[in-house]
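Hi P.,

Sorry for the delay on this. The queue was packed all week, but I finally got your sequence through. Input first:
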Amino acid sequence: MDEKTKLQHCLNCNRSENEIPLVTLSYSGKPPFICSHCLPMLTHHPEMLIGKIEGAENIPPAEHHD
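Then the structure:
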């Protein structure tokens, strides 16, 4: 399988684009992918992605306004 047809996978749960919609990110000059299910983790608990996305320890969680 060549690079053009290689399936992309979620950086967190590893599900493929054939299993769940993926969102392309642009961060640190790299194009990682995250699925629609794991996207809230990136927004609210980025610390849970340490080791899965470079620089995750520097991403602040979203502020919550009640």
